[in-house]
Amino acid sequence: LQQRVETASNLIVRFEFAEARDAFAALRVGLAADDPLYRQATFGQAVAAQHVQPPDPALISEAERLFNELADDGTNDSLAARSLLNAGRILELRDYLNDPERPNEAVAVYRRVIVEYPDLPIAHEAALRIGGAQLQQFADPAVVAEGVAFVESHLADHPDNPFAGAMHLTMYDHYRPRNAGADALRHLEAGDAAGLPVARVGEYYWQAG
Question: For the chain, first and last CA: distance in Å?
Fold first, then answer.
């Protein structure tokens, strides 16, 4: 069975998502819900279903259901944490035509990640996602302001977190078009110190002028 899991996982690596989804679904049949292989197969099926092209509303719903199943199965491990975050991303993003964006629901899920897994690096990834989801709600300035305050506070409390560089760039991208030059430069320099993506260092400093 472990070999079948690895074979199905390799299908994902090769972007053969429909085949991977079917392979993982077949693996789950007959396995107990508390079997580690069942959980691996469930996660694999969810990831594959989410990425089948073209996106299929039924498969996106399937992925969301499976991620939530893992998130709520009581194991409270890193796989459950990742599943919870992935369920939030499905809520946040538009996967197909007329797919409703649900950023506020996504933020609630991301907050769960932080509360339930405060000692895992994924908590900081969830904080990054909260900022991203709120800063994109241009029609609601109060939500945008809440996102700004949240990311600034998280960076102040966790300046060396593994997602600090990405958080600083998120704030730079927020401040720069709003002519908040001092704040933009502050985050650009802090992001550089935290580790900007190498391919984008020149781009960002060129934009900063």
Answer: 57
CA distance 185 to 189: 6
Q: Are 49 and 21 in contact (CB under 8 A)?
A: yes
Distance CA 44, CA 13 (A): 11
Please enumerate, as own/partner, the contacts of 110-114 that have beta carbons within 8 Å and a separation of 24 or more. 110/85, 112/84, 113/81, 113/84, 113/85, 113/88
pLDDT in tens, 148-206: 999 999 999 999 999 999 999 999 999 988 877 789 889 988 888 887 765 455 566 55
How many other CB atoms are there within 10 angstroms of residue 118's CB atom? 9
Q: How many residues does the chain have?
A: 209
Q: What's the whole-number mean pLDDT along residues 129-155?
A: 96
